[in-house]
Amino acid sequence: MKFSVVIPVYNREKELPKCIESVLSQTYKDFEIVIVDNGSTDNSKDIVQSYINQDSRVKYFWQENSGSPAGSRNTGIKNALGEWVAFLDSDDYWYETKLEEVCQKIDNLSDEYIAISHYEDKEIDGIKVVTLEHGKNISDLPYDELLFKGNSLSTSAMTVRKEKLLEVGLFDTRKDYFAVEDYDMWMRLAKVGKFAYIHKTLGVFSISGSNMSGNIELINNNLKTLVLNHIDNLSIDNKEKLKKIHSSRIDYYKGRSYQLNGQMSKAIPILFHSIVEYPLCIKKYISLFFALLGIKK
User: Fold this and answer.
1) What H or E segment, with its residue span, contains residue 37?
2) Residue 278 near residue 249 (C-beta atoms within 8 A)
3) Residue 260 host element (H or E)
4) What is the enclosing helix (H) or strand (E) of 119?
């Protein structure tokens, strides 16, 4: 089997049908769907069962709630039969040629390539707002770029060789990597093989008011922990300087998130602190200026 599509689910009865149907309608047919239910209490199980009754490629695994999609993805990887694992979050969906075009890309690559990414449309509450050009400006060996410039990849746009996911030790399930465990995975994979990119929109990244992506404090704190841990593991002499620079960079991200959310009382002190920690960045001053004026720009 070429692809195993791993879908972690937790209480997604409204979004799940569109997600599953986007896979079943793919023009490329050599795949299985591995759905891992992370302890849902809604009708997610019944919805999946209705698809199992129609198509034997749909498989369902239930587990106690692990508190993170990392554990669900790991269960999916372990039970996957495909050579490649294509990840899809249960509130996202693909366009119908996604697997076909990923397969064509794989067939034209050497074995040193272990992961494929593509562009996504971003939707907020069902309205398309922008195209996310994942991988547009990063190399096929992107570890340093990911670590020092930030995560430019998305789980639902990533397809990875199963053997490499097992080789790097699956997704990290520690609590302080929650919501950034995918970023950690891409960096660890970047150490063992090359990435390839399809500069075409093949799916949709969907956000609603209830998405965990809205938790600014948690996500940015965990992001800082992750980046500083990776810097600590580098074999270089200037770790402390790098940690200060990139801790400041993530504080800037946090401040900007609050600013764009209209929470200026939180944004201003964080942006100011980021400048104090590392002042050599003009965009920090611009953001602070607009925040002081109450502008969400």
Assistant:
1) strand 31-37
2) yes
3) helix 239-260
4) strand 113-124
Residue 37 pairs in a beta bridge with: 9, 62
- H or E segment to which residue 248 belongs: helix 239-260
Residue 213's pLDDT is 44
What tokens were used for 127? 């309205």
Residue 22: what residue type? Answer: S
Contacts of 247 (CB under 8 A, 6+ apart): 224, 227, 228, 277
User: How far, in Å, CA of 239 to CA of 88, rounded?
Assistant: 35
All residue ranges of the chain with pLDDT < 70 are 209-214
- Distance between first and last Cα of the chain: 47
* CA–CA dist 140, 142 (Å, integer): 6
pLDDT at 67: 83
Q: Per this entry, what is the length of the chain?
A: 297
66: Cβ contacts below 8 Å, ≥ 6 apart = 38, 39, 72, 173
Please choose, from the candidates 250, 244, 248, the residue with its C-alpha nearest in 3D space to the C-alpha of residue 231: 244
- Residue 88 tokens read as 């899809």
Q: How far apart are CA 291 and CA 267, in angstroms?
A: 7
Report how far residue 291's alpha carbon sits from residue 260's, in angstroms, rounded to the nearest whole number.
Answer: 9
178-193: string of b/e by CB count within 10 Å (b at 16+)? bbbbbbbbbbbbbeeb
Q: Give the Cα separation of 214 and 210 in Å (integer).
A: 8
Give the tens place of pLDDT for each residue, 115-163.
Answer: 999 999 999 999 999 999 999 999 999 999 999 999 999 999 999 999 9
Long-range contacts of 40-49 (CB under 8 A, 24+ apart): 40/9, 40/10, 40/11, 40/12, 40/13, 41/11, 42/11, 42/12, 42/13, 43/13, 44/9, 44/10, 44/11, 44/12, 44/13, 44/16, 47/13, 47/16, 47/17, 47/20, 48/9, 48/16, 48/20
